[in-house]
Design a protein that fits this description.
Radius of gyration: 22 Å
Mean pLDDT: 91
Largest sheet: 11 strands, mixed
Low-confidence stretches: 1-32
Number of strands: 26
Strand content: 25-35%
Distance between the termini: 32 Å
Number of domains: 2
CATH topology of the largest domain: TIM Barrel
CATH architecture of the largest domain: Alpha-Beta Barrel
Helix content: 10-25%
Structural class: alpha/beta
Shape: globular
Length: about 425
């Protein structure tokens, strides 16, 4: 008999005997062992059970020899290693929380702006192969017609259902950006922040826009910044020419984050700290950073993480539709032609400048730990609990603790993904 607590109710769980359970290989979810729970009111119901274990399970900022017991997609218990018969023993492999990517445009030939249902579904289905269990599909600056269709497509897929990584919401990057620091964003579609226009986008998205990247110095009287902050949308300063002082005012008026620090923003100078300096100084403001080692060197990544600490830096991929496609592939992104280089970076064909990445989150973790020499807790937090805190979902995602979603990644020592579990289900 096992006593567990789920949703503030105490249950008694009875395991059924099953001689057919394979102890060395995790079973498909529909075939996993079943059990019955008897609630305090005397009623019972069938539940899906799963127990995995390893001698390195990431709990409370450390690796413990432990088991993770899952009941109906939620972590029910964290137990000592070997406490119960496990469905899968991963030995010395690392078991960590599922990765969360809050800034990513696409993959496998699909871009969020394409507004194609099947392209989005295919992306969500396959992205767990790199350990991603939750995601924010991200737009790029375009016309109002294109962006409206893009966000409406995400809403449609969410409402109709899909397989794979959980869509947490939409990251709306642009069109309220600075011309100088626009990067690969098409300048002909850049406009000033407009509350009424944003309301139309949010209506089309059925409320799914959760993050907006904009040049807050272009936001007159911080009208859109304040509106978003008051309505549960994270404002992230990015593609911006803001000075240190202007960034200070933006944060004071509701901005909570900065987009891909070092890229698309005013650089650091000891007499003009700029947005980079603000990112370093505002230690309790979240900051995204692309961790491919190309957009920012390992030394720069170390500087940022050491300045901000373990709780406010967020790894992003900023991945484009060429992710998962052959080297040399050329596609249109935001109206500009981009090409995939051998090192995994994507460049504007004409200007040769960086346009985005094809980074996988598990590879980004390796870059942080092995090349940038970031402490493991800093690195793992940046792709798990920190993005969850930014989005206000850290009560159910980002940790391996009882009561949280069973979003779990098993890592090999080379950082390749052995297995990803989506609410207790094997992803591949």
């Amino acid at each position: 008999m096992i006593c567990i607590c789920l949703e503030m109710q105490k249950f008694v769980l009875f395991n059924r005997k099953s001689a057919n359970i394979n102890k060395t290989k995790a079973l498909p979810f529909k075939k996993r062992k079943m059990g019955s729970i008897i609630k305090a009111d005397g009623t019972s119901k069938e539940v899906n059970l799963m127990i995995i274990q390893s001698k390195r399970v990431w709990v409370l900022g450390q690796f413990l020899e432990a088991q993770v017991e899952v009941v109906d997609g939620k972590i029910a218990n964290i137990l000592p290693y070997g406490a119960k018969t496990a469905d899968k023993d991963y030995g010395d492999k690392r078991i960590v929380p599922g990765f969360i990517d809050i800034h990513t445009h696409g993959a496998y030939g699909f871009d969020t702006n394409d507004a194609e249902e099947e392209g989005l579904r295919n992306w969500m289905k396959h992205i767990p192969e790199e350990g991603v269990t939750a995601i924010c599909p991200t737009t790029i600056t375009q016309t109002e017609e294109v962006l409206t269709k893009a966000v409406a497509n995400v809403a449609k897929v969410v409402e109709e259902g899909y397989e794979g990584a959980e869509i947490l919401g939409i990251h709306f990057e642009g069109p309220y950006l600075d011309m100088v620091y626009k990067g690969a964003q098409p300048e002909q579609c850049i406009v000033k922040p407009d509350v009424e226009q944003f309301k139309r986008y949010q209506e089309a998205a059925h409320g799914l826009i959760k993050i907006i990247t904009m040049a807050t110095e272009k936001d007159e009287d911080f009208k859109l910044t304040k509106y978003c902050a008051e309505n549960g949308v994270v404002v992230s300063i990015g593609h911006s020419a803001a000075t240190y002082e202007e960034a200070s005012m933006a944060v004071a008026n509701g901005a909570k984050s900065m987009t891909h620090i070092f890229n698309g923003m005013t650089p650091f100078h000891h007499r003009k700290p700029g947005l980079v300096g603000a990112a370093m100084r505002f230690r309790d403001v979240f900051g995204e950073v692309i961790c491919d080692g190309n957009h920012s060197t390992p030394a720069a990544l170390n500087d940022l993480f050491m300045a901000k600490g373990r709780d406010y830096t967020i790894m992003i991929t900023d991945a484009l539709m060429v992710k998962g496609l052959p080297v040399g592939t050329k596609v249109l992104f935001g109206g500009n032609e981009i090409e995939l280089y051998p090192d995994g970076s994507a460049h504007l064909v004409e200007a040769k400048s960086l346009a985005g990445s094809t980074l996988k989150v598990n590879q980004g973790l390796k870059v942080l730990v092995e090349k940038a020499l970031i402490p493991f807790d800093y690195a793992i937090n940046s792709c798990t609990i920190n993005p969850a805190r930014l989005l206000g979902i850290d009560d159910r995602k980002g940790k391996l603790v009882a009561g949280y979603d069973a979003d779990i990644v098993v890592l090999n020592d080379d950082y390749s993904v052995e297995m990803t579990y989506l609410k207790g289900k094997e992803a591949f």
